[in-house]
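Q: Structure for this?
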Amino acid sequence: MTALTRAVRSELLKFFTTRLWWGLAIGVFASAALFALLFGILYTSQSFLEQSGGGPFGGQVVADDVQIANTVYTAGLGVGYLLMLVIGVIQIGAEYRHRTVTSTFLTQPHRPRVMLGKVLALVLIAAAYGALSLVGSVLVGSVTLRSRGAEAFPSAEVVRTLALSLLVLGLWALIGLGAGILIRNQVAALLITVGVAWIVEPLAGLAISAWDFGQHHIAPYLPSAATQAVLNGAQASADDVRLSWWGGAIALAAWAAAFALTGIVRVVRQDIS
Amino acid sequence: MPSAGVSVEFAGLTKRFGSLTAVDDLTFTVEPGRVTGFLGPNGAGKTTTMRMLLGLVRPTAGTATIGGRAYAELDDPLAVVGAALEATDVHPGRTGRDHLRTIAAAAGIPDARVDELLELTGIPAFARKRAGGYSTGMKQRLALAQSLLGDPRLLVLDEPANGLDPEGIRWLRGFLRHLSHDQGKTVLVSSHLLQEVEQTVDDVVIIANGTLVRQGPMADLGGEPGAVVRTSDPAALARELGEVTCEPQDDGTLLVHSTDLQAIGDAALAAGLPVWELRRREADLEALFFELTEGRNRNLGEAV
């Protein structure tokens, strides 16, 4: 076994030897199933789609069959990616908090390798949680859509979205990893990252959109907007400027790379005391 | 066959945190097959020195090497160095055994070795419970088990006796002597209490405020033992003792540089002097340690 494989195994063991993982697994599965049910009913209801008020600022919801299916199957991901963000923060934050980072770096003094092990482990964890989330959302969502006379799988594009949702979860976990290093206090790191990702950043996106240049050249590249673009769900309004799915994937990957790399550079130079 | 020791060299090791010099130009060597006590008051720079040796803290200047190599250059670090730095280095939601498994996994060590060491340190049952409920003594044993995972040639233990009960301390003492004297390993143990390691260590390195104040075998540290005599005329007794050197003490006793109590008593009788007290004086290590580090503890001084 190479040193990197051992590092990944060790990181997976760290994740699965505390009680956190199954609590989060329940959260991921339940939110995926519940939101799929809720959105499945909402987006097959004519009054919801036609009347304004569907979007947060009153514009009419714009969605074709594919977007409706995408929206229903990825409805729980809004919670899912926040949970992955949390997992990313904790994968390093718990090491600082409980000072196991000392043992980690004593066992493997080559710090970039340790961090690469964390990155790969988070990608695997995200894939597993993503798969779990899809089981919940597709089971519940397809039954809901079909029972209300809508197409459960209107095109192969839906499968693309399902696959990409795994990528989205992995990238958010890496954003969390970077943030967990940059904010060394785990509790502060959790509060700040979730607060920013959930509330501050989407609101900032809306504020920036009020400015024409910002609406076209800044807002679509923000992480949550890029996430929406990757998943290609229903749009809140017709003037919503959105990247293509691959543009969104590149933007989100760039955010993840920026956070993770800044964090890794920081860790490599850090005194562990 | 357990692996034999390796020597550790500190050369001009220095660490500055801003304007504070935590470790100042430290140079000394730690030999294999012996237990070396690394002593100094709290805040003297012991932990920072150990962390620099282990590649966790970057030195401002100088080097610390293990068998001529820096920690980060070791191919299989756990097979060379086993370290137990702080007793609280365990996630409270993880069992002690799982904690060791995460380390074993990263080092390619089988889980069977984990169980072997939990048996050796006497905590196989406790190690299957979550670490949140461990006592300090249990954490110390777990940390020791962790340090031995890779059968290292050098053990670096930071205050290993903290929180151990008397029986645990006795066990630890025997264990460290076994590892060093019988297996030839190098053992470096830090402590802020000389008495705590007095019976365990062969060599001592004493630092205060980040600088070396004394280094050498434990036996040489306190000077030679002698005898204390209380009599009516110390000067007359000193003359009677002739060649044996004597020092009158402030409290009226006479310190004789000899442990032959019978000869001292005979001399007093020959001089016709009453003996009010006659006892052997062991080297007072506690006083010496205090003297060496006294007034040098920056944590107790006035704020600058």
